[in-house]
Amino acid sequence: MTTTNTGGGAVPARISIITLGVADLARSSAFYEALGWPRASASSAEIVWFRTADSVLGLFPADELAADAGIPPIGEPAFRGVTMGINLESERAVDEAMTAAVAAGASVVKPPKATSWGGYSGYFEDPDGHLWELAHAPGFAFSGTGQLVLP
Amino acid sequence: MTTTNTGGGAVPARISIITLGVADLARSSAFYEALGWPRASASSAEIVWFRTADSVLGLFPADELAADAGIPPIGEPAFRGVTMGINLESERAVDEAMTAAVAAGASVVKPPKATSWGGYSGYFEDPDGHLWELAHAPGFAFSGTGQLVLP
């Protein structure tokens, strides 16, 4: 198949995979499965992948992920400098998503509320403390498969 | 438009946006622009977005990102527990991408080499130390727009 890049040259504008370092692969995999996310059959005992409308989500033991990059692991930071957002079509969908995330084992970090930018959002953390924002941003559009499309 | 979710219930399988906390918004934005990535017109003086084939990339001041989630910021960890991967069609494309990333201001963390899983990959870090893997994984397919598609 011929690939048409959406931008970039030798470094095409892609985020093919987001890999989260996890302490317990089985526990973390069970969490995303409890959300109903589709586990890719390419997954193995060493790494687990979930398909999404956007980038692929990878789960990999944190110490091995650090070793793969060749840098020392750290312990449990308060904030890791990265957040992942799940954009939704309405404020109600944000509330319902937070309830479902908690039911799957997430912890509420910030209950959903109106934001300074005119939207509505809240945060939860997964079993390893990775931060997910649930957000409704008025005017943001989605493709037919749910991929966020920005102008 | 009617949206067909690729999986999940109230928490659809989406990673709409990956937001990286950065120390200097102008410096970091210039780096991704130097890669040729398309800056979204929805960007503002407070937050900058780039469109990709997969999730949207957001850049946001690290201290504000921590405050937005309501948790304390940290300093400069050795490893943040998250990596982002740019998958490419060949080993040569990985080498060329690493050269281009360095030309744009990235630092090589791990030069590209054959991996234990039969692929070829290397890592660079952006101006804030966020880790990007450049990888060729034999058998992995892309959509017509370059989005990674896993079975």
Could you outline the blueprint of secondary structure elements for this entry?
Two copies of one chain form a homodimer.
Chain A: E1 17-22, H1 25-34, E2 48-50, E3 56-61, H2 62-69, E4 82-87, H3 91-104, E5 107-114, E6 120-125, E7 131-136, E8 141-142, E9 148-149
Parallel strand pairs in A: 1-3, 4-7
Antiparallel strand pairs in A: 2-3, 5-6, 6-7, 8-9
Architecture overview:
Two copies of one chain form a homodimer. By secondary structure, chain A is α/β, with parallel strands linked by helices. Chain A is 21% helix and 30% strand. In chain A, the strands form three sheets. Chain A has a four-stranded mixed β-sheet with strand order 4-7-6-5. In chain A, strands 1-3-2 form a three-stranded mixed β-sheet. A two-stranded antiparallel ribbon of chain A has the order 8-9. In chain A, a hairpin with a 5-residue loop joins strand 6 and strand 7. At the A-B interface, strand 1, strand 3, helix 2, strand 4 and helix 3 of A face strand 1, strand 3, helix 2, strand 4 and helix 3 of B. Strand 1 of chain A pairs antiparallel with strand 4 (82-87) of chain B, so a sheet runs across the interface.
Count of DSSP-assigned helices of chain A = 3
Most extensive contact: A-B, 86 and 85 residues
Strand percent estimate of chain A: 25-35%
Report how far apart the termini of chain A are.
26 Å
Radius of gyration of chain A: 16 Å
Assign an overall shape of chain A.
Answer: globular
- What is the quaternary state of this protein? homodimer
Which structural class matches the secondary elements of chain A? alpha/beta
How many β-strands of chain A, per DSSP? Answer: 9
Low-confidence stretches of chain A: none
User: What strand line-up does the widest sheet of chain A have?
Assistant: 4-7-6-5
Q: What's the order of the H and E elements of chain A?
A: EHEEHEHEEEEE
**What's the overall average pLDDT of chain A, rounded?**
84
What percentage of residues of chain A falls in helices of 4 or more residues?
10-25%
Largest sheet of chain A: 4 strands, mixed
